[in-house]
Amino acid sequence: MRRGLLVLVAMIAALGGPVPVAAARPAAHTTVPPPTVDPEAPTPTASLTAPPPTGSAPDGSTVGGPGLRTRGVVVAPGAPALPQGLTAPGWLVADLGTGTVLAASDPHGRYYPASTLKTLTLLTLVHRLPTDQVVTATTDDENVEGTRVGLVHGGQYPVGLLFQALILGSGNDVANALARANGGTDATVAEMNAVARGLGAYDTVAGTPSGLDVAGQTSSPYDLALIFRALLADPATAAVLATPRITIPPEAGKPGFEVDNENPLLGGYAGDLGGKNGFTDAARHTFVTAAQRGGRRIVVTLMGVDRQPGVTEYDQAAHLLDWGFSVPAGTAGVGRLVTAADLAAAPATASATATTPPPRAPAPVGRHPVLGPVMASAAGAAALVVGSGLLRLRLRLRRRRR
Description:
By secondary structure, the chain is an alpha+beta fold.
């Protein structure tokens, strides 16, 4: 009896104190089905009012390491203080040479990508379509929703020029024309998703080749870094990113015109290697870029930026690039950008017939997204045990009195 009381008192005391991290054993990885696009659902038109869902690998693990399993900010140990004025809810800074993630905020949050998704479109199509292939623009291209470069119905454009116009001018008309040349939008989107999975970009789900919003279409700060690293590693796409200006020739009776690169850091930030911006009402401002200094390359991604006076996504990217270069080379990071070798070495996922839990809701503000559920479940379990113990103790005392 006395022993039971001591155990009971200890458990009651434990309820009032913190749950040790060591006590929170990680759950076994469970196969997680990939998110899907729902073209029948209403098109997102408003920005997120709560953190988006968190992405993961198919086996439920966190791609890039457990240090990136966070909804908040995580910074490499011993790194300088982060720059002020960061308003993006999701961002990431990584060393492209080593793959080390130096800092991030909600790195696997699945945000609307807007036109930064065109980086995946380019990566997917650059070696599928010959650059000298000629594409004839259609009325659908000319009238596509959103940003248009200015393709005209009946105009004939080489694929190489369209690749440049896709990135420099962010043309949705160009994305439409390239997808049609590749066999259609559905085929292109399917190939984009296959390319993303091959990179380990499991947070990315393409629903359009342009990045126009569609329900279920997502990417993440981490995934954009993976995609951009692949673009810079390919001389063909790296050259497209670094092109400052192109000329669209006169076609179908319309005069020619110039298209400037929309990335203001190209030529405006020393060593910038190119970038891609994006904007929709739902996605807000998104941006990915990289720069080289002293043989070192740093990539920065930002998602969900609400512009404030003097603090645009470009300002924040420049500050984060400066910060990334200030972190000493060789600093231990908070995670890493995965490679093909990492994916090949990953353990086999569980059977597709395994039971999959429903997706977790975003963590409420003020609650730790990782330890919060652990503490809640631990406290709940302890409360059940304590309640049961108190009931048994009460019955025993009652029997003794009788």
